[in-house]
Amino acid sequence: MEYILAFLSLFLYRYVRLVVNLWAYHRHKPITPSCTSKLTSKDVTVVIPSVDGHGVRLIHTLQSILQNRPQKVVLVTIEKNHMKAEEMIKSLQSLQATVKVISVHKPNKRKQMAAGIQEVTTKITVFADDDVMWTDSLLQWILSPFEKTARTGAVGTCQRVQRNPARSISQSVFRFLGALYIERRNFDCAATVHIDGVVPCISGRTAAYRTSILQDQNFIQGFCNETWGGNELDPDDDNFLTRWMVSQGWDIHIQCHPDALVSTILEDNPNFLKQCLRWARSNWRSNLRSMFVERFIWRRHPYSTYAVYLTTLSPPALVGDAALIWLCNKATEDLMLRHWLLGLLVVWMFISKFIKFLGYFQRHPSDIILLPISILFGYMHGAIKLYAACTLHVTRWGSRERSDGTGKEETPRNQANKKHLVCNWKKYTHFLWRLLILPIHAQTVAWPAGNIRLQLHCFGLGVCVLADRTLNVMIPLKNGQMLNRMNDLGGTLLSYRDICIFVLLQVLDMGSLTAAIRIFLLLPLEDYWIKKLKVGSFERIMALSGDFHENNDPNASADLISEAGGFEYQMAAIFLQLGPLLLDALLALSTIYYLETRAAFCFIVVVVFYFCVQNLGPQEDLQRQRFHSLKREKSVVCQSVLNWATVSYFNGFKCEKARLAEAVDIRLDYKKKSAIHSMFKTTMETSGFAAGFVGACVATARGVTHGDRPIGGLFAMLTYWTRLSEPLKFTVQQIGTLREQAVKMEPFIEIFEKTPTVVDPEDAPSATINSGDIYFDCVDFSYDGQRPIFKDFSFKIGSGQTIVIVGATGSGKSTLIKLLLRQYSPQSGTIQIDGKDISGVRMETVRENIALAPQHPGFFIYSITDNIRYANPKATDEDVHEACRLAAIHDQILKYPDRYDTVMRADKLSGGERRRLAIARAFIKNAPLLILDEPTNDLDNETAAQIQHNMLRRTRGQTTIVISHDINLMKDADKIIVIDSGKVVEEGNHQTLMLRQGHYYKLYTARCYPKSV
């Protein structure tokens, strides 16, 4: 009876609030704006505290706020960013309200908010974070509760996380967790407001207050000087505001309506975890102070007190759920429906974990697949709350390090402690990454979306896994039952039915049938995974921008794509070995607990010991170092072979041999260390498993000898433990391989997480080029953000003009081409073709309209015809021949043995031949814009003159950009643009620039009379 009472008490304690909140949430109605409202947007001042005081997010925030037409917006930043904020405000066009920038000396959100309050002269003050987006009618909805009752002191808003495209799997997961956090907050706040007229905490992202409350000197004094443990509190501003409203007898209302919606963003991994930690600390401090120091909430809002008490002092979800299941098991031991009741409890617990989020999953049904991650994170959040309770003395913002208002210099010791904590935090978040993110990434890649046949294969594999798990449970139990029956019958023979069942189970246990089915189902999936990963990684790498390709070894990228094989083995290991092993462990715990409680304890100890040993020491680091040492060895070999000519020129064979020997020694050393570490761990795991087995046998045997358990229970436990040892031992043997495969998967994950720095806007139109005029307007660009290549770079090319761009080496001529082709984007300014900014159109259509003959052309190992036709697949053989005639290479090709079918190899062609083939390839594209980079380099004078003549005839009426120092090309150009130090210093035709005797004059005379110069 005591177990029943304990179970009912705990169940009601945990779930009465949920049921009441469900009722209240669906009863809660927002207060709609009135047409005769006396309060308007002109009675509102918006205060925005911001550390940076500028940036794209803040601009979007301001634009959405200004659409609501408040009387005034006060942006409060810090002194060093004041000028940037002023410049940003000036850049905003057609401001619909007064925007004032003020600043404080040091970043401190509370002091920034207090400074903003002093600037308010309206009846209502709205605090808004610098990363929110308002709806157009937000102010109308946020003002209506103030008019309904004079006791309303504050109004909160309904919030959602902005659903921007995620750049990585981790961002998708943490965005999902953040969205559920906000969804849960909306649910709880709406429910408590409906019941009690107050919320546990009104969110600081956007909330409105009566200005008279905020300008009370007692409020400002308490708000700016609140402390905890002697430390000044910078965070917890929204908690203080909520407690102040309660203490002064004001009501709080929440407007839950799509027109009162505030979109916001949350931090990404690992900052999301830091943000959760900061929220947990804030809730601990505020709730404890509210309940046990101020105690106003007890008298006026009993239900909110109950809600705050539950969220603060209840045990973690993992402990509470485990206690409920254990009490239910104990309370129903003598009932026939015991298993049904336990199942109903588990189903109810599962429903309770997502019922608050039904609205979210209705809006985003594809995210339902991430629900298990939410449940696991809910359990893990208990550890975050516990850690937060132990670190309440930390009063910084946690995830907002720049907002520390103390102004104190850190000592070397503090810096060392901080560095140590950061390292530990990184290890912790890396563990969470392994635990949560990698399975989701694997699932995302592995699931054959859109292929019903392969989805059925996955379903069949799942059925096979469940069938094997069922056999693992049934066979030991059935063997034990048969032994008990034989013992009860005095050793007489069993019935034919029992014998047939026994034989059938043993035949199925051989695994040949399910193994054959698994192989049949798995083979098409493995082919799908290999193709998807190779093609997907190729597509992702080729879609990355110029910064990736110019800063990474192309051979390494090619090897990465080629070595995509092996992913299928990891998928099979995860879903057919590790996944079933987890099910086996859970079933084993339940079954062994049913057979003998003490044996179940031994099993738990063994499993915990097993996982501790698996994560003992630097095994994964060794595997990673071994993998990278193998890559270094391969790189040494490739570089030496590819640069054989250079090695022979400088007689460097001995040096290359020594480099390779050193790389091989390093790899073998890591291999040895990894093998020794793996053997040590295997020994420990086997010993621990054996010790647990002995303990379980002793515990079960004692129960049999004392008559508490039948002898069949001992036999079943022995059988089950033996069966379970095989997959565990197999995992121990394969764990090294799995770790190695996981390390090899890291580069693939990194590739799939990378995002191009140059992307098309959503629904970008295609580029249509008619006239072909080009305009660089105040372009600033730098590769590394430090050394500027272009600064306020501007020039214009008219339709059909041929211009020559000249300048010293390193002046940015080739960079200009990359910007035109959108391989990079400028930091500021615009590049326009036909009056349209190319950053606003699809980049593939921009590139379709540009033909380029680069300074260092690249060719495929195809025939000459295929290489030239690569620029225009629809070109005929005659078109190819004509392009080669214009490039003065046709006669040379006819001298080759296979003529146009000759397979091109770069090392077999001279520099002049490569140059002319590149020009032919550009000509055959017949694009509106033609770019030739040093077209006459490596050519003799006669050939250069012929190409120049053909080029002038071919490009008449076509916008052409030539980068060259060829004197003849300069003379014939419509316009010459001279670049120096990232700026256009001169432009005009040859005669005009020569008369000026400036930069062009010096370059020209240096080419004509090098000795005199």
From TrEMBL:
It is found in: Cell membrane. GO terms for molecular function: ABC-type transporter activity; ATP binding; ATP hydrolysis activity; glycosyltransferase activity. The chain crosses the membrane at residues 306-328, 340-362, 368-390, 499-523, 569-587, 599-617. The keyword Transmembrane applies. Its main location: membrane. InterPro entries: AAA+_ATPase, ABC1_TM_dom, ABC1_TM_sf, ABC_transporter-like_ATP-bd, ABC_transporter-like_CS, Glycosyltrans_GT2/GT47, Nucleotide-diphossugar_trans, P-loop_NTPase. Pfam families: ABC_membrane (PF00664), ABC_tran (PF00005), Glyco_tranf_2_3 (PF13641). GO terms for cellular component: plasma membrane. Keywords: ATP-binding, Cell membrane, Glycoprotein, Glycosyltransferase, Membrane, Nucleotide-binding, Transferase, Transmembrane, Transmembrane helix, Transport. The keyword S-adenosyl-L-methionine does not apply. It is a multi-pass membrane protein. Residues 769-1006 form the ABC transporter domain. This is ABC transporter domain-containing protein.
